[in-house]
């Protein structure tokens, strides 16, 4: 059995080749031996990489023939879809799609958090918000992004739903990248602080509908800032 790190590297290389168009959707996948030589791995490692991409719908097994590369619209694995979304040429579309997903998931999480949050959760939210304000004033962007992500992570955990938390985990890298990009704009950082404060107060008040609306408002503000101040 190939080592997991080597297999994952082979998965990434193969997926990058597909995303870049060096291997074309709809066409047959080259023989595993040829791919193994090209990517500098063993045939066993490449076979396992192909199997893992089959599980994500990127590669389709064709009985009696070589595997076929599926179009992106048929991919089912979150890791593969996110990797494609982060690729060159997909920046605007992927950023807006991510916000749509966050709108659906995080507004519901805030609603649940208003019902289920503990005193400890409220203290953690207050601390994260205070650090966002501190780092905004100091212009410490990486620390600001970390506190921002932490605030949302606390909301998710306060919702007390393991499946909800797991649903956002594959998007972590994309969220970090997007936050780092938008947080370079001081106006956007201030908007984020104002919106986070509204979310915190709604969760503290224990009013589910208000918490949902506050998080939805935050997502709308983020989208508007992204369109007007970053992507225009």
Key attributes of the depicted protein:
single chain, 232 residues, mainly alpha, Arc Repressor Mutant, subunit A, Four Helix Bundle (Hemerythrin (Met), subunit A), 2 domains, two-stranded antiparallel ribbon, 11 helices, transcription, DNA-binding, Tscrpt_reg_HTH_GntR, DNA-binding transcription factor activity
Structure in words:
By secondary structure, this protein is an all-alpha fold. It has two domains: 4-80, Orthogonal Bundle (Arc Repressor Mutant, subunit A); 91-230, Up-down Bundle (Four Helix Bundle (Hemerythrin (Met), subunit A)). Helices cover 73% and strands 2% of the residues. Strands 1-2 form a two-stranded antiparallel sheet. A hairpin with a 7-residue loop joins β1 and β2. It starts with a helix and ends with a helix. Pfam families: FCD, GntR. This is FadR family transcriptional regulator. Residues 4-72 form the HTH gntR-type domain. Keywords: DNA-binding, Transcription, Transcription regulation.
Shape, please? Answer: elongated
- Series of secondary-structure elements, N-terminal to C-terminal: HHHEEHHHHHHHH
CATH architecture grouping of the largest domain: Up-down Bundle
Briefly note the structural class of the backbone: mainly alpha
Q: Could you give the order of strands across the largest sheet?
A: 1-2
The radius of gyration computed from the alpha-carbon positions, rounded to a whole number of angstroms, is 21 Å
Count of individual domains: 2
Helix content: over 70%
The total of beta strands comes to 2
CATH topology of the largest domain: Four Helix Bundle (Hemerythrin (Met), subunit A)
């Amino acid at each position: 059995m190939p080592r997991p790190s080597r297999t994952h590297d082979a998965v990434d290389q193969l997926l990058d080749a597909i995303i870049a168009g060096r291997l074309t959707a709809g066409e047959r996948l080259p023989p595993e031996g040829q791919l193994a030589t090209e990517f500098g791995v063993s045939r066993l490692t490449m076979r396992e990489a192909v199997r893992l991409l089959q599980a994500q719908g990127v590669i389709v097994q064709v009985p009696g023939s070589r595997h076929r590369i599926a179009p992106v619209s048929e991919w089912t694995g979150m890791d593969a879809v996110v990797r494609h979304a982060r690729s060159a040429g997909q920046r605007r579309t992927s950023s807006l799609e991510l916000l749509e997903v966050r709108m659906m998931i995080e507004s519901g999480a805030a609603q649940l958090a208003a019902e289920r949050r503990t005193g400890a959760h409220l203290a953690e939210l207050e601390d994260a918000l205070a650090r966002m304000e501190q780092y905004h004033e100091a212009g410490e962007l990486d620390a600001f992004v970390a506190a921002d992500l932490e605030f949302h992570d606390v909301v998710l955990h306060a919702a007390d739903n393991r499946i909800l938390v797991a649903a956002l985990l594959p998007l972590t890298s994309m969220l970090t990248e997007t936050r780092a990009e938008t947080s370079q704009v001081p106006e956007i950082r201030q908007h984020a602080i104002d919106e986070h404060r509204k979310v915190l107060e709604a969760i503290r008040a224990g009013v589910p509908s208000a918490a949902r609306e506050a998080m939805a408002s935050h997502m709308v503000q983020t989208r508007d800032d992204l369109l007007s101040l970053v992507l225009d």
